[in-house]
Amino acid sequence: MRALNTTAESSALHAEIVGMLYSNNRRSLMAAIVVMIALLLVQWHLIDHIILTVWSSIFLVAYGIRAYLTVQYEKDLQRELHSRQWLQWFRASTCFCGLAWGLGGILLFPEADTAHQAFLIFALVGVSGAGIIIYSVDTLSTNLFSGGIVLFMIPRFLIHGSSVSLALAVLFMVYVFYVTVAGRSLATSLRENISLRIASNLDNKKVHQLAYYDFLTGLPNRRLLTDRLNQAFARCVRHQHYGAVLCLDLNNFKGLNDSKGHQAGDELLQQVAFRLQQCLRKKDTIARMGGDEFIAVLDELSTDKTEAITAAQATAEKMMAVFSQPFELQNSKYRTAPSIGICLFLGDLLKEDEVLRRADIAMYQAKKSDNLNSIQMYDEAVHPAVEMRATLENELAFALQGKQLLLYYQVQVNELQQPTGAEVLLRWQHPTLGMIPPDQFIPIAEETGEIVSIGQWVLAQACQQLKHWSQSVHTAQLKLSVNVSAIQFSQPDFVQMVKETVLASGCDASCLRLELTESLIVKNIDEVIEKINALKVLGITFSLDDFGIGQSSLSVLKRLPLDELKIDRSFIKDIVHNNYDSFIVQTIINMGKNLSHSVIAEGVEMQQQMVMLQKMGCHAFQGYLFSRPLPLHEFEASLQSAMRGGAAPSATGQRKVLRSRLG
Ligand code: C2E
Ligand code: CA
Ligand code: CA
């Protein structure tokens, strides 16, 4: 027999067997009464009527109890749960019925009438045979029943001592034995069939559970949610009702996982799931989409849009309210709150994916808003920008692996407009959105931490390029400026990482310049100085980018072991017409001289700007006047033509310069 794997399977088998036993009771009761009446009628003139009355009373009590138990069993709505008690009662009443029949064998035994003895045996053989077969699923019930009959009857036939009664008793025993054996094998195959069916039912349930429910929280999973959402859509179309999708995400769940471990994270999710379930209507669905994201589908809110919005917001507030009580995690209290985004739907105006996406965007906006723990409705007017940001944030993680990041090179020139090097500038070549400028994705990369690996990649590329250039006399002097984000610089292993990257490439470290911004200097000035000095030992030089717009004090700047100040392009823009800007630029140039730092101006677009800067004492430039940032092969090509012409590399820039020279 197939072994039952779980307690669930064996209790289901037990309950089913008890059900089968009780289900036969009504028919066997009828049959027993028919046999009893037949016996009474046949023996009426042979047996004392008092004895007949006593026996039929005992008989009726036994079968009356059985009928009562059957009714009670059927009434018990939790009979499967109580199946063990019901089996005990069944066995007791079966034993009683067997004894009643056995007693009939003694009391109704006609001493002198062999034909009636045969009739009695015939009736009891039928009764015990039927009983053994009917009760065969429970061996003990079978034994109690046939045992009760045999116990009284056989001695009675043996006591009588005639050869006929003896023969009848032996035949009876053989018959009971035979039927019992047959009943056993019947019972075995019956139980086997039942347990197979139960097991396959349970397996199906298990498969269903795994396929459609989240194993951690027991909530519907994404697959079931899609199904429910489809149904909700169909109902909303039929009844022209608005429904809503609510997207809920826990704030700082990653922080909890990192600080208290995944076990605590799992516990929190389970408790959150339980609480969220309590605040929804029966017809609503709450599903876990994975991670700490939950989706609720609110079906048929109202035919009126404003009412539907109010109802959806009310549910969102209820969901928010379940977070007011702290959660119990590993014996300590933990407080958290979610961000919730809402998107309404009406019929099939929007596809399910779109509704989910919009709810997600609204949630994202809720998370980004200053007011933490907020609830946001999807609003078409506000969302394109947020949507774009969300898309970039999601896809940035794959940009590096997907080889979608590129480096552009923007030339830097000296006063003779000869190329001295270039600034390395990142570009993201997105497969569908096209070229994305760094201003759009670097802040996101800084927020997600992705900037660390991106920055490392940029540095490695730049070093390899320097190494490559070092092999030609024409390019060996070129320097490369690499932008370093404050987040990247503040990594504890930043110095180590730069050292390893430079050494691995084999480039000349003195050709590498790192551009830092003032934002980095504001805090931990000593640590910054230490890191800069550690890298300067290798020969790496440092430039302070976007200089002039920051807040750092002169005393701080003096302490920094920098090599270059890079005047922010916003001052260069109006330098020709704005006296204030030109005054600032002059001050920066003077300051650089005083601190023995070289000064470079970026964003130089016009000849006049360059001329003015030169007059002020600035001798290094970068800007569209010379060249826009270019992909490597174009940059290298323009370098070659610049070398031939002896000026800045860009074809357009070069033409302009030549024109101005001629002019
Ligand atoms: P940034 O470091 O100030 O880079 C100079 C920016 O000015 C570049 O913009 C460049 O294309 C632009 N530019 C150069 N000449 C001119 C000009 O004559 N006129 C005008 N209007 N603009 C000019 P880009 O390439 O869009 O880079 C923007 C910012 O993105 C950079 O500003 C830098 O902060 C950041 N960035 C770029 N690449 C990297 C990188 O590899 N790592 C990090 N951390 N940041 C980067
Ligand atoms: Ca820069
Ligand atoms: Ca800059």
Write the layout of secondary structure elements.
Blueprint: H1 7-23, H2 25-43, H3 49-75, H4 83-107, H5 114-134, H6 139-160, H7 163-212, H8 222-239, E1 242-250, H9 253-260, H10 262-278, E2 285-290, E3 293-302, H11 305-321, E4 327-329, E5 332-334, E6 338-346, H12 352-368, E7 375-377, H13 383-399, E8 405-413, E9 419-430, E10 434-436, H14 438-448, H15 451-470, E11 479-483, H16 486-489, H17 494-505, E12 512-516, H18 518-521, H19 525-536, E13 541-547, H20 554-559, E14 564-567, H21 569-573, H22 579-594, E15 598-602, H23 607-616, E16 620-622, E17 630-631, H24 632-645, H25 651-662
Parallel strand pairs: 6-7, 9-11, 11-12, 12-13, 13-14, 14-15, 15-16
Antiparallel strand pairs: 1-3, 1-6, 2-3, 4-5, 8-9, 8-16, 8-17, 9-10
Helix pairs in contact: 1-4, 1-7, 2-3, 2-5, 3-4, 4-5, 4-6, 5-6, 5-7, 6-7, 9-10, 12-13, 13-14, 15-17, 17-19
The structure holds ligand C2E and calcium ion (CA) (2 copies).
One calcium ion is lined by residues 423, 483, 515, 545.
Please, could you describe this protein's structure?
The protein is α/β, with parallel strands linked by helices and 663 residues long. Helices cover 60% and strands 15% of the residues. The longest helix is centred in the first third of the chain and has 50 residues. The chain is rod-shaped and about 145 Å long. It starts with 6 loop residues before the first helix and ends with a helix. The C terminus is likely disordered. It binds ligand C2E and calcium ion (CA) (2 copies). The site of ligand C2E has 22 residues, from strand 9, helix 14, helix 15 and strand 13. One calcium ion binds next to strand 13.
